[in-house]
Design a protein that fits this description.
This protein is α+β, with helices and mostly antiparallel strands. It folds into 3 domains: 58 residues, Rubrerythrin, domain 2, CATH 2.20.28; 216 residues, Citrate Synthase, domain 1, CATH 1.10.580.10; 111 residues, Cytochrome P450-Terp, domain 2 (Cytochrome p450-Terp, domain 2), CATH 1.10.230.10. Helix content is 49%, strand content 7%. A hairpin with a 2-residue loop joins strand 2 and strand 3. Helix 14 packs parallel to helix 17. The longest helix is centred in the middle third of the chain and has 25 residues. It is globular and about 75 Å long. Bound molecules: acetyl coenzyme *A. Acetyl coenzyme *A (ACO) binds next to loops.
Length: 440
């Protein structure tokens, strides 16, 4: 019989009773007083492993990058509250903060900016790769394939741990090129000619230039639009051990190169339960509008569970409170639509859904609140970004976080390859049967 009697903290150890024997395991405490039981020796000492489907209680690493308190709705990059960064910083400065661990001095920021500009052009031969995709291909598929393909042009990337000078260049190249590839993917998916980046434009303005310069007549880079998109990038820049970042770390633990890790991150981000949720939110809002519903019928369907529908943009594995990014985005969304003098009926439906859900016992009991994706899509629509590009925007924003996590793995010579175990529940030993004996 197995009795898990005590898992309480006894000073710096936790005691676990298994089959009548007591084992002690060290307790690890983080800088924000988060506690974990270090079970790295569990299997060696007891023969057991832990079972944690979906890793909800598994600390897969010790990290210094991002802190989240999901109960209180707190998010900090390198200790700095997201609200302060959203108000005072820019995406590029925040990217530096995440990757290098401190806010840059003027000189550091200038050097970083120069590196981004110097590395923003793709190798000319990459254009042939773009030609291989059909018009209509999903830009996330193009993005992941092209990030991987672009690694072929930088042989230095493949030389094991790329430190330290090479890392700076590769990191800047990835941040810069992910944006160039993203814009090219959009142009390709619409069958439009590619627009090259301009050296005189800053990061986010340059992205909008590459996307739209010739799409709208007299396209004007409005500062409010540039600011709103820059803020979306910043708010997505990192979020500790989410699905895509864990994927990046997983791949990095085998010491694959930075671009291969980022391409894997893009694939993990793509799904509707993760980065694809922003696209799913707009689809949901459009369906509600087309059905002539104000959201009430949809909420009933979600609650009934038989429809298989979820309120997209709601709920989070970590936040059991309002996602602090959603608060910031909601305000920016309101401000931007006002500035642009734009009315979006989807915003009204979203607000109604939020209001209804936050008062409803189904959502209250499960502690489901709006997450970052609930309002971000409405901002992106206002900026002119097509729905299929929403997750790509998320990927551009998340790139510095992936790089920071990659760096943390590479900086740690003791990092072991990530290799979880499983509980096997399939057939026990079973023998090969010749095909003639298998029946019809
Ligand atoms: N709508 C309706 N019910 C929900 C929702 C939702 N959005 N999210 C969770 N629930 C319900 C589940 O049905 C479950 O109910 P039950 O206890 O009756 O079975 C309960 O809440 C717990 O849900 P889980 O799926 O176990 O929660 P988990 O932590 O695994 O999932 C997730 C988190 C994937 C974000 C989930 O809330 C979800 O699917 N949300 C919608 C998609 C979304 O917005 N994703 C973006 C996340 S943020 C990001 O990646 C940037």
């Amino acid at each position: 019989m197995i009795v898990i009697l005590i898992k309480k903290f006894m000073g710096n150890t936790a005691r676990l009773e298994l089959d009548g024997k007591v084992y002690e395991f060290p307790v690890v405490t983080g800088s924000e007083n988060e506690k974990a039981i270090d079970i790295t020796k569990l299997r060696d000492t007891t023969g057991y492993i832990t079972f944690d489907d979906g890793y909800a209680n598994t600390g897969s690493c010790v990290s210094n990058i991002t802190f989240i308190d999901g109960e209180k709705g707190v998010l900090r990059y390198r200790g700095i509250p997201i609200e302060e960064l959203a108000e005072k910083s820019t995406f590029v400065e925040t990217a530096y903060l995440l990757i290098y661990g401190h806010l840059p001095t003027k000189k550091e920021l200038q050097n970083f900016s120069n590196l981004l500009t110097q590395n923003q052009f793709l190798h000319e031969d990459m254009k042939y790769h773009f030609e291989g995709f059909s018009a209509g291909a999903h830009p996330m598929a193009i993005l992941s394939a092209m990030i991987n393909a672009s690694s072929c042009f930088y042989p230095g990337l493949m030389l094991g741990r790329p430190f330290p000078e090479r890392f700076d260049i590769h990191a800047a190249r990835l941040i810069s090129q992910v944006r160039t590839i993203a814009a090219f993917s959009y142009r390709k998916s619409r069958g439009l000619p590619i627009i090259y980046p301009k050296k005189t434009l800053k990061y986010t303005a340059n992205f909008l230039h590459m996307m739209f310069s010739d799409v709208y007549e007299d396209y004007e880079l409005k500062p409010e639009v540039v600011h709103a998109l820059d803020l979306i990038f910043l708010l997505h820049a990192d979020h500790e051990q989410n699905c895509s970042t864990s994927t990046v770390r997983m791949v990095a633990s085998s010491q694959a190169n930075l671009f291969a890790c980022a391409a894997a991150g893009v694939c993990a981000l793509w799904g509707p339960l993760h980065g694809g949720a922003n696209q799913a939110v707009i689809k949901m809002l459009e369906e509600i509008r087309e059905a002539g519903d104000d959201g009430s019928k949809f909420i009933s369907e979600v609650k009934s569970k038989t429809s298989g529908k979820r309120l997209m943009g709601f709920g989070h594995r970590i936040y059991k409170n309002y996602d602090p990014r959603a608060k910031i985005i909601k305000k920016v969304c309101d401000d931007l639509l006002k500035t642009l003098n734009r009315v979006d009926p989807l915003l009204d439906i979203a607000k109604k859904l939020e209001e209804t859900a936050l008062k409803d016992s189904y959502f209250i009991e499960r502690r489901l609140y709006p997450n970052v994706d609930f309002y971000s899509g409405i901002i992106m629509r206002a900026v002119g970004i097509p729905t299929e590009m929403f997750t790509v925007i998320f990927a551009i924003g998340r790139t510095p976080g992936w790089i920071a996590n990659f760096k943390e793995i590479m900086d740690n010579p003791k990092c072991r390859i990530y290799r979880p175990r499983q509980i096997y529940n399939g057939k026990t030993v079973n023998h090969y049967m010749p095909i003639e004996e298998r029946g019809e």
